[in-house]
Every structure is written in C-alpha cells, then in structure tokens.
C-alpha cells in the first residue's frame, strides 16, 4: 500500500483520459501484466480530497495477492490531512491445529549420511596458515 500519486482510470473510473499521468501508466501496466498481484483498492474509492476544489481522487493504492473479494478496504474519517486514512481488513486465517506433541527433527526417515557427504563435498575446506 502506498501513496502512488498515480492517476489512471483503472482505479478512478470517471477520470478523463487527459487527466492520466505518467505515474499512473506504470502501475496500471504492471497490474495488467501481473499474474500474482492485483489491485485491492476499490475503483473510485476517494483517498484524497483536494483542499481547494474539494474534488476526490484515488491516490493510495493497495496491491496484494489476496483475492480482492476477501479484503475490505475503506477510508477513515478526516484527521487533518488532505489524504484520508486507508483501513484494510484481511480475512481471518485460522491458527494451526493444537497438538500435544512437540515438533522434532527425525533423521531416521531420511538418509543423513548422504546429506552429510554432500555438505562435506560442497563446502570448501579451510586450512588456516601455519605459523
């Protein structure tokens, strides 16, 4: 998440084409080509209010790999800045199941001798200088 100062109709649908800026072209192109990240900010969510004209704009962008439908992004109340606070709620992830057994390493199931030999041959030996 960040203040990209990027203007593009990808996240500001009513933005005239003439108001797009170079800062907006880069993230929009990246998001269009990305298989792993998507825009989580709702299109048209006002995150900045111009203090003179009182026109809203979407400048704070949230990117992530969580499905957009699972996140909730809203803006908070005015707190003295021309930018509104952005509030993000992610879905709750359940904790791992409780177990009564402590986790431990088991070398019996593997082949520790092969592992040790590979480590020995892949690591250079260090011979300290003789005095």
How would you describe this protein?
- By secondary structure, this protein is α+β, with helices and mostly antiparallel strands.
- The protein has a domain at about 1-90: Endonuclease/exonuclease/phosphatase (Deoxyribonuclease I, Chain A, 4-Layer Sandwich).
- The protein contains two helices and eight strands; from the N terminus they run E-H-E-E-E-E-E-E-E-H.
- The protein has helices spanning about 20-35, 110-120, and strands at about 1-5, 40, 50, 55, 60, 65, 70-75, 85-90.
- A two-stranded antiparallel sheet has the order 1-5.
- Strand 3 (about 50) and strand 4 form a beta hairpin.
- The longest helix has 12 residues, at about 20-35.
- It is elongated.
- It starts with a strand and ends in a 9-residue tail after the last helix.
- This is Endonuclease/exonuclease/phosphatase domain-containing protein.
Features:
alpha+beta, two-stranded antiparallel sheet, Endo/exonu/phosph_ase_sf, Endonuclease/exonuclease/phosphatase domain-containing protein, 131 residues, 2 helices, Deoxyribonuclease I, Chain A
What share of the residues does DSSP label as strand, in percent?
Answer: 15-25%
Per DSSP E runs of 2 or more residues, the count of β-strands stands at: 8
First and last CA, distance: 58 Å
CATH architectural grouping of the domain at 2-89: 4-Layer Sandwich
Side by side, the strands of the main sheet go 1-5
Secondary structural class: alpha+beta
Task: Write the CATH homologous superfamily of the domain at 2-89.
Answer: Endonuclease/exonuclease/phosphatase
Gyration radius, to the nearest Å? Answer: 26 Å
DSSP helix count?
Answer: 2
Protein name: Endonuclease/exonuclease/phosphatase domain-containing protein
InterPro entries: Endo/exonu/phosph_ase_sf
Organism: Portunus trituberculatus
